Amino acid sequence: MHPNPIFRNEDVARSLAFAETTGFGHLVMNGDGAPLAAHIPFHLTNNRQTAELHLVRSNPIARNIKDGAAPAKLMITGPHGYISPDWYGIEDQVPTWNYVAVHLIGQLEMLPEQRLRDIIDRLSDAFEAKLAPKPVWKSTKMTPEVMDKMMRQIVPCQFHIEEVQSTWKLNQNKPDSARVNAANQVENYDLGSDTKRLATYMREA
Asked: DSSP label at 111?
């Protein structure tokens, strides 16, 4: 998280909504010798107080929580991009990088395996809903034997959110006119990820 408080005063509800809409993040946890990390889709539940997800059974994080819950962090990144100092229209500026990042901090636990089917169905339903009017894919379309074989390779998990930290670094430390000038230029270049959405966030900052 960026230390400048001007980038860290975003409403918690908006940061959670951003995490929910993105639905994909980097799950990290302490390990022996080095941090453990996994890239995972997830679904927020329980009024955005928990996240449901699944891990491959052989994933070191899954093995790390086999005997009980453990502290973890789920990091969600959004649009980001390079900002040229020429775009502000004011003197004595330097290059920077704008971005949105939300960190969910809490406890990760493994759930009973009988919970797995419901979790993967809710996860796929959440993403399939965004594809309307495409008919929703359901796991019932799978051959039962094939589905059972695939499910044996993964384990259900739940992440209990205890703290939300976020950085919305969008040139809030610049004059409004300079920030908008930079936003207008950002969407003309491909110097990051989803720069059109980054430009929109910059204008709203």
From this structure: P
pLDDT for residue 9: 86
Q: Give the Cα-Cα-Cα angle 75, 195, 170 (nearest 5 degrees).
A: 65
C-alpha span between 142 and 58 (Å, rounded):
23
What global pTM score does this model have? 0.93
Query: What's residue 150's pLDDT?
Result: 95
* Identity of the residue numbered 71: P
Query: What pLDDT is recorded for position 73?
Result: 98
Q: How far apart are CA 92 and CA 160, in angstroms?
A: 45
Long-range pairs, 79-83, Cβ under 8 A, ≥24:
79/192, 79/193, 79/194, 79/195, 79/197, 79/198, 79/201, 80/192, 80/193, 80/198, 81/186, 81/189, 81/191, 81/192, 81/193, 81/195, 81/198, 82/189, 82/191, 82/192, 83/171, 83/182, 83/186
